[in-house]
Amino acid sequence: MPPSRARAPAKKSDEDDGSSVRADALQPTLALAKDIWGQLDRGEIPRMRLPLRTKQNLQFQMREGVWKLGRQMGTRSARKLDGALMLLRTFYLVDFINEMAKDKKTSTLRELYYISEAWQEAKFHSEDESNLLIEDLEVMCERLREDFRLHPEENGASVLGDLTIRERNRKGVVKTINCRDDVGDGGYSLPFNVEKGKVDFVKTSAKFVIAIECGGMVDRLAENGFDEQYDAILLHLKGQPARSTRRFLRRVTEELQLPVVVFTDGDPWSFRIYASVAYGAIKTAHLSNYLATPAAEFLGVTASDIENYDLPSDQLSEQDVRALEAELTDPRFATAEWRSEIELMLKNGKKAEQQSLAKYGLNYVTEHYLPEKLAEMGVL
Amino acid sequence: MVPPPTIAQQLAAKQREISVAEFFERNRQILGFDNPQRSLLTTVKEAADNSLDGCEEAGILPEVTVQVSKEGEDRLRVSVEDNGPGILRREIPNVFARLLYGSRFHSNRQARGQQGIGISAAVLYANLTTARPAKIISKVEEEEAAHVLELFLDTQKNQPRIASEDVMLWDRPHGTRIELVLRARYVRGRQSPYDYLRGTAIVNPHARIVLVEPDGTRVTFERATSDLPPPAKETLPHPYGLELGELGYFLKGTKKPTLREFLGKDLQGVSARAVGEVLDRCGLKPGQSPSSVQGEAQERLLKSLHEVSLVAPSSDCLSPIGAMLIKRGLRNVLGDVRPEFYAPPVSRPPKVRGGFPFMVEVGIVYGGALPADQPIQILRFANRVPLLFQQGACAITNAISNLDWRRYGLDQKGGSGIPSGPALILVHVASTKIPFTSEAKEAIAEDPEIDREVTLALQVAARHLRTHLSRRSRRDQAGAKFEIILKILPKLAEKTSHLTGNPVPDLTPVVTRIMDVVHLDATPVTDPAGIRVPVQIVNYTPRARVLELFAEIPPEAMAVAKFDPAPDGTDPGLGRAWWTLPKLTPSGRTQLELRFPPKTDVDASDLDWYVAGVDEAHLLGADPLPGDWDVRLPRTIVEAAEAAAAESAAAGEEEVDYDAAESSASAGEEE
Questions:
Q1: N or C terminus of chain A: which is more exposed, having fewer CB within 10 Å?
Q2: What is the C-alpha to C-alpha distance for residues B45 and B119, in angstroms, rounded to an integer?
Q3: ipTM value
């Protein structure tokens, strides 16, 4: 059997208990329990098979244009202590989410981490551990964590620009909001669930979306009136973008047919931000055709920008160099353009922040840099 | 007109005797007084070494008390007191306040001090830095009272100057006390008096050493044995180590009337046959007087002595610590570190380099509170004296660095250099002549023969360490497996049963598949009735097992041991006992018991257990029977073991362990 993959998001049920979970959402979790029980009953050492979520197991899906998990499988077996513990945890988790469903409750990822305090030897030692197990469960059950009634506590990005949306809030009231006129300076804040039915697009006059790494740059563009002058939607990524941010970008391109450009610092970590937006992240490669936006383009700051615009720069640290070298073996960056970009950065040994453009004055970024780059990319 | 002085005259005018004070100032570093911290250590070291040497020569169990107290801004008062034989009144001034005066300079045996510089240099340092005399109290057994002298070292004449003298009643039969006030600094830690005395206590387990630190802290290193080391005998010089000048000195000073007698009786290892051969070679006459051998003839004589094959130098002038006492000394001093393992110490047989015998001893300690993430601790000793400085330049350190410790279970970058891990290595080199790198006697010079012996000793001890570590890792694996079957599996069964609404399944088949070992547990219990060792053997494999159990017990302990049930065979001389166990079905178990009377000298947790009838991969808590036991096993056992091994070899390969797969690529990604 080929590895299981998460499919499209769960369809929203008509029943409304404040979450959007389909009725059979938990069925696969019980099937897992049945499988392990059967193994124990037959006297077999209990084990589960999962696709490996590693860089080496990323495969490009030509048709969808995203990177997804390949066919390499790993085994989680009770033969070893770590494996046995993970199996036990899996069923503590399955038990917990089934109990939650009965009580019509939801839980944040952090709350789950604390809930596990009562699981004795099976308790999580860090939130990373619990997040990884939830992703494992998503992969095995072909469900999303929202189906398990688990969600992150922080919200997604903020959006600023002429985009009108309809959001059904926690009380079930539907509100229509224009992301430029009806919001404060902070913009419209994406909820953790941005699925249809929860958030719907009404209309927009915008011609493209510009996704920005740092808040300071979002504020600069807003203050300079960039969104109105160039009909742009500004989206603040807040560093590595949350799932809801990436899902929102995907829907914007799919449903509004808007181009997306990504504007970050010029360093190896920002390259990864772009990769997770455009191609999918390694950890969530099982969700790539749901979260990734293959049409998103990288605007800058590129290694060549640092030279061409003579930007104030910092030396690459040892970690930076290691990150760049790792990117050279990352299949997502295995294109001629990215290779030359990464190699140029390694050669010059320099990185720069996006706000370093202020070297030429506060208006430089909106009057020169962005128009030039956008014209080059054919967006303007 | 007076002619101008010639160059020679000018030089002559400048020439004069160098005073001792100048000599001292210029040689502070090699004498060990180059800074206040080191000066204190050198003072303590010289005084304590003298005390120990004195006690041992007199056959007294040493009690040495070192007290350091503050005496002003940068001054310390140091007193070192012993229960040694005491020093005769007439000798006191020369022993303590005259450089190059000593009893051991010309002796050919192993001793701590030799040159007769040490303690007088400390006295001189105290005189120079604080202008205070050294105070000596000493009492010999034959006299009623102790002599009390205050001494300066006259730096012009290298002669003692007595500042005051008295007698006093001392509440002890004999002993010596020296008190000095000097410019010094007290620091605890590396290269401190504490470090030095601790090291001294380890290799001198017959000594009781007390240190009172300036803040009043009292550290006592109790003695771990009341047996004095056998006194090192003084031996005759061996021709192999003889220099020309020395030979001349001996030829002139001997009381033997003829050369034949001189060669045969004043030197070591020259047999009657060898005497004849030597004399033939150099063409000297057996009957001529030794003092008549002069100049070039001396050279010929020495050359012939070096060419003729002689009996190797004797080693009874050495005073090794011995394997048992190294272990006791380490245990005694490292008790609070609670090491998990003491490798059986290695005491190599004596070897000879040049004309001098030497031998090497090594001890390794592992685990407990020793720091795991740092380079191992190296304790270097030369003739029972700790070496605290110049670690990097020492032959001992080099021998350690040149071994590939990764093979023995320690971390070591690239397989050379000082390994790291929670370990301590003790190396003792004993010799009548140790090649030090410098006069300060801080490091042993590179020497191929010493290097070879140290390496061999290290390898033997390291092999024990490796055995221990591999046993421990198998124990850890067993611990992990027990955790799986005892704690995790029952819960996993309960959870999945609850979620599916099915009854809880019987876990026995899964348990034997996961464990897949025969497990032996032999944890001793000490109670007033003695030491009890219950031995439990459980067959956690999915097949029935026919097994043979073997125990190896030190023969002395085995002689007093009681067995239940009685073994099916024993070899008391080798300390071996064996049992044929009843057939064990999967999950089947059996047990037996050993008992030792109270105070039996046996480490019951360190007995060796061997099991035949199961291969190493399926055995926990015991080892497979070593090949050299030469035991004929019952056919049933051999066949069962072969069948089981074939079966496990046929078992399929495992898929990638999901939880061990590389996932660092995703670090820093996503929410």
A1: N
A2: 9
A3: 0.76
